[in-house]
Amino acid sequence: MNVLSLVIFLFMLHINYSYATNVNLAENPVLVSVEKAYLRASIPGSNISAAYMTIVNNGEKTVTLLGASSNISPRIEIHQNTMKNNMMRMRKMDIINIKANERITLQPSGIHLMLFDVIKPLQPQQDVELTLHFSNSKPVSLQVPVLSPIQEKSAQNSDEQHSHIMQHHH
Question: Which residues contact 157 (CB under 8 A, 6 or more apart)?
Fold first, then answer.
């Protein structure tokens, strides 16, 4: 491992303060990492959920997210919400391109992963294995916590406060 690779690896370990990730950077030459990943707890009577996270490409080439898989859902799709004529619309996306040194945030009311036909209700405090599939990188598997609506709101608020604090330091 050359010095630059070691520095990048150590930097990735430092900035990757995700709720839970098991990304093996040594096997992932494009240096994809995932931050702040979580699944939304199931709504009673519903068999769908959504996954949110920030995907970071610290590599020198564009990576393409093709989709995701999990043993809790036979079908996971990339979706995007958009506002058109004062109406929120959701459409399926085939891929997400993440340019070199770019981060893409999958979030409520934006791009996200939709999990369909979830096998059993997702409960807060549960962890779920989720694998992200890329066209030009090895799959990235991670353990993702399930958050209740209150936990989700709290996580979003802490992210906003963190962003706000970081803006003052620039």
Answer: none
